[in-house]
Amino acid sequence: MNLYKSFSLYTVASFIERGLAFFLLPIFTFYLTTKDFGILSLVTSIFSFSLPLVTLGIQGAISVAYFNGDKRNYPSYFTSSIVTPFIITIFLTLVILIFKTPIENYLEIPILWVLTIPIFCFLSFFNSLLLIDYQIKNEPTKYITYSLSNSCLNILISLLLVILFKLGYQGRLTGQYFSIIIFSIVGFYILYKKRELLVKKINWVNVKDSLSYGLPLVPHILGAMVINMSDRMFIDYFCGKEELGIYNIGYVIGSAISILCAAFANAIIPFSYELFAIGTFEAKAKVVKVYWLFVLVMIVAGLSVWGLTPLIFKYFIDAKFLGGIKYVPWIVLGYFFQGMYLLFANIIFYLKKTKILFYLSFVNIIINFSLNYFLIPVLGPMGAAYATCVSFFLFFIMIAFSCNRIYPLPWMSILIKTNK
Description:
Number of helices: 19
Shape: globular
Structural class: mainly alpha
Low-confidence stretches: none
Order of helices and strands: HHHHHHHHHHHHHHHHHHH
Largest sheet: none
């Protein structure tokens, strides 16, 4: 299946998936309070922050192992890569049990929702393993079917618990967690019986290799999570959960262009890795052509979200969340820069130069944390929106400069005709 067809399928699926969530916003904003949305945002941010601590970026190691390694070793590598996340899950759960009282007092939410986060991070990781295999083997139809089924179950259960049983934010969280459980079981069955990727023998050489690839990525992934989490934590502390709930609605709408980022990331891996392996000027020029097309699509998407925001808040969002409109432009701009960063990150992943991301991510974490610390007490949630935009921009600039040094691409090749 060619790149454009794959990208189209992933994009359509992402729009359906995010579109369902978007059109549910009027329902959830009606039945949930601003404080409920604040708590949801807080728990979701902690989940997003914990996920890379559990997975250690091992998903990328699996992809590279398939393209660059011995295909006969792939099932063993696939299975061995699960060992470390499982051990970390047990460790983090024990840590939360030990410190459950101060955690509950600080976050002011039931400890059960925090205690189960490492477990559901592991189940979510395991659930994603099947999607990874679909992705690298260029099977977008299966990927989309599985992913959308998961999302639909999540939404249906959430609606049932929020509307009929009046469970508030806990109903929404239950819907999310229940769908993860069901589809991790389904994923296990398919991986074991249908695709034969779960084998009995653990190869510790493969475990070590996956760690050597994934560990340097942890700060990189955490950098993105810090951007998504630290602003919520600071807003919660300085402004309260009500303001956090309003900010989060603006953030959700502003980050809508990440739909295209996700679709691009899913479609580009098999396409670009194969061309990078060829290594000719023509092969690189093909990748660059697709990259420029993606930049153009992101510009159009960003301007569209920006322009439609007033209508979205007028017709789809409950009036009590109207204050979130002012955060949207800055979040849109920030996620545009994040999309540009993906162009270069894809190259670094292929080259296994993940140590570059290790160092740059530490810098990004410090920048974002500092901006939130100084701006939010003065400017309120708007300071968080500024911090998000600036952090994504600076990280894009740093990674683009570093990547161009180690693996320059013919960015101007679209303006040049060549017979070679």
